[in-house]
Design a protein that fits this description.
Strand 6 and strand 7 form a beta hairpin. The strands form two sheets. Strands 1-2-3-4 form a four-stranded antiparallel beta sheet. The chain has six helices and seven strands; from the N terminus they run H-E-H-H-H-H-E-E-E-E-E-E-H. It starts with a helix and ends with a helix. By secondary structure, it is α+β, with helices and mostly antiparallel strands.
């Protein structure tokens, strides 16, 4: 379970004991909005920030691992005859597969309408914090989303998160099935205007189980 510091902070900023809470993330990248929509929303970031160790790893990969792989591939190419060109049917299959990947502009993250509540929330999602983790808290009469301003945080110990969005219960509800496989569980925030937003990567299995049971209770 989330540590006492998390629950203590949640009680403090809510003014009451949360019925349930869970750390979560957008389980897929935010789709690219139309340029004019992104501009009108202030051109906020659409991707989470990364820790500096990730950049170090990327540098090592491109300047050490990639050259080694290329040299190995060139050596193999000299020993082997080039493969036959792919057949027309194979090329058609690849082309069709590529089209299939691009057919869903929402990426199963939201309903697709940037002008509605879910779309507007996504446009400012990483503007509140570059960290991908969000704490969804269920209070007596509202649903709240909180985050820490830090780039890195420990979900079990975070004590500096703040509410960045809240919705009365008649304007937002949480939907999700109980007993989902751990590690694959998701839920949706569904808003009164018909828009929805899906989150996954639920943190702390006990919190996730309790959260899903609560919204189904």
């Amino acid at each position: 379970m989330a540590k006492r510091a998390v629950h203590r902070r949640a009680r403090k900023i809510l003014g009451e004991e949360p019925a349930a809470l869970v750390w979560c993330e957008l389980h897929k990248p935010i789709p690219t909005p139309p340029k004019e929509v992104h501009r009108a929303a202030g051109r906020g970031r659409l991707k989470p920030g990364h820790h500096w160790l990730l950049y170090v790893g990327a540098v090592v990969f491109f300047f050490v691992v990639v050259p080694v792989m290329l040299l190995d591939k060139l050596g193999t190419g000299r020993r082997d005859r080039p493969n036959a060109r792919p057949s027309a049917s194979g090329r058609d299959r690849d082309r069709d597969h590529g089209r299939g990947r691009g057919q869903d502009p929402t990426n199963h993250v939201f309903d697709g309408d940037w002008s509605l509540t879910a779309g507007q929330l996504l446009l400012h999602w990483y503007g509140h914090s570059p960290n991908p983790k969000r704490l969804v808290m269920l209070a007596r009469d509202r649903v709240c989303i909180a985050t820490s301003p830090r780039r890195r945080l420990s979900p079990t110990k975070a004590d500096d998160f703040r509410i960045v969005a809240e919705f009365p219960r008649d304007q937002a509800r949480v939907e999700g099935e109980a007993d989902q496989p751990r590690g694959f569980a998701t839920f949706r925030l569904r808003f009164a205007d018909g828009s929805w937003l899906e989150a996954g990567r639920l943190g702390e299995p006990e919190d996730a189980d309790h959260f899903l049971r609560t919204i189904n209770g």
